[in-house]
């Protein structure tokens, strides 16, 4: 009977944790362990949440990647790393990021950011834009092409 009561408490706790955003199974497992539930209750709760469709690492990964590209674009590599850091397996992370085109995304970000760099010389423009794109996980080849494209389209270049 104690297990049943603990399972209900764990499930209620898990539902509250899901209110803000969807979670990976690893995030939920860590949360429930931190909340003090034992392994058996945690696994039972995860099984219940999975059966109800609240926990699905492939859907979580796809939604995370889509959200990142919509609101806070990052490189394919960085988004995959974020997913793996959240406990999503490498295959699900790769599947979720396979359609991301770093070249076009980096160029779009560079063009958008270039608007804030109108009154700077070429050296400062290149350095700031390079730093900005590097902080979003793009490799230097992609950054170089995106920065050159943004400089070429700058009105006073």
Descriptive account of the structure:
This protein folds into three domains: 2-55, Arc Repressor Mutant, subunit A, CATH 1.10.10; 58-97, Arc Repressor Mutant, subunit A; 102-152. The mean pLDDT is 93. The chain has helices at 2-18, 25-34, 39-52, 57-71, 76-85, 90-97, 102-114, 122-134, 140-152. Helix 2 runs antiparallel to helix 3. It is mainly alpha-helical and 157 residues long.
β-strand amount = under 5%
Structural class: mainly alpha
Percentage of residues in helical conformation: over 70%
In the CATH scheme, what's the topology name of the largest domain? Arc Repressor Mutant, subunit A
What kind of assembly state do the chains in view correspond to? single chain
What is the straight-line distance between the termini?
74 Å
Task: Give the class-level CATH name of the largest domain.
Answer: Mainly Alpha
- Give a short account of the largest sheet: none
Low-confidence runs of at least 5 consecutive residues: none
């Amino acid at each position: 009977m104690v297990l049943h009561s603990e399972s209900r408490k764990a499930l209620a706790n898990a539902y509250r944790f899901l209110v803000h955003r969807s979670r990976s199974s690893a995030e939920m497992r860590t949360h429930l362990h931190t909340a003090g539930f034992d392994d058996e209750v945690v696994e039972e709760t995860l099984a219940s949440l999975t059966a109800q469709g609240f926990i699905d690492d492939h859907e979580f990964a796809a939604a995370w990647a889509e959200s990142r590209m919509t609101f806070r674009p990052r490189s394919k590599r960085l988004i995959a790393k974020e997913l793996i850091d959240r406990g999503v397996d490498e295959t699900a992370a790769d599947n979720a990021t396979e359609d991301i085109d770093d070249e076009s995304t980096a160029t779009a970000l560079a063009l958008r950011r270039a608007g804030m760099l109108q009154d700077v010389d070429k050296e400062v423009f290149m350095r700031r834009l390079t730093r900005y794109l590097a902080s979003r996980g793009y490799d230097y080849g992609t950054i170089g092409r995106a920065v050159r494209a943004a400089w070429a389209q700058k009105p006073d270049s």
